[in-house]
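Quarterly update, task 2.4: 1,3-dihydroxyacetonephosphate-bound model.
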Amino acid sequence: MKVRKPLVAGNWKMNGDIASNEQLFTALRAAPERVPAAQVEVVVCPPYPYLGQAAAWLGDTGVAWGAQDVSAHPNGAHTGEVSASMLADLGCRWVVIGHSERRQAGETDEQVAAKLARCAAHEIGVIACVGETLAEREAGATETVLARQLDAIASTLLAGGASAAPGRFVLAYEPVWAIGTGRTASPDTAQAAHRFLRERLAVRGYRESGYVRILYGGSVKANNAAALFAMPDVDGGLIGGASLVADEFLDICRAAALA
Ligand code: 13P
C-alpha cells in the first residue's frame, strides 16, 4: 500500500452521448464491488453538457466527477467559456487543467496557472497536466519543458493560490507522444519524469511535495497499468481511451488499488 492514496481519473474527451454515458455510469455505480474506495480514488470527467448527468448518476456513490477544463477568468465577456464558480455551483469537485490538447490549441503556462487559482478560490481540486512532445524529448529538452510548465503552476501554489491541500492538487505527467498513440512510456521513463517533478516542487519550496499525487497519462490500458502504478512516484493514472470501456477502466482502477 502506498503512502499516497492512488487516484485514477477518466478523461472522456469529446466523446459520449446520453445513452452510452448511462452504460458507463451504471458500471461505475457497481464499482465498490470491484474497486474498493478505501484504496483508490476514482474520478470521471465527461464533457460539460453531461456533468449534470454525471452528478445524477454518481452523486450518491464514491466515484467523483469533474470537468475537462475551466475558464481562466472569473466571469464576463468570454463567450463559450465556463467559470470555476459555475462548476462549483453544480457540485463539481475536480477539474483537469493544462491538458496538452488545450495547450496545443494555444493555452499558455500563465493561463494554466490562472485556472489553478480560479479553482482554488472555489475549492475545486485540480488535475494539472504537464508533458513534453516527441520533438522535445528527442532534443533532450524533456526536463526543461517539464520545469517550465511546472514552475508556472508551482508559483500559484506557493502564492497560496491553492488552498489546495495536497490531496486536492494532483499533477499528471502526460507525455504528448504517448497520448492516444498506443505508445506508453515505460515504467522507468514515467518514474524518472515523476521523480523529477516531485523534486522540482520541493526545490521550488512546496513543502507538501511528498504528498502530491502524480498521475501518469498516455495509453494506459488494463494490461500495462499495474507495471506503471508499481513505480514509487506513480500514484495512479489519467486515462483517455480506456476510460470509455467500463471493464477496462475498472480493471485499471483495481490495478491502482492493489499497487
Ligand atoms: P489516452 O489514454 O487515450 O492515451 O489519453 C491520455 C490522455 O490524454 C488523458 O488525459
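Highlight for this quarter: The chain has one domain: 7-258.
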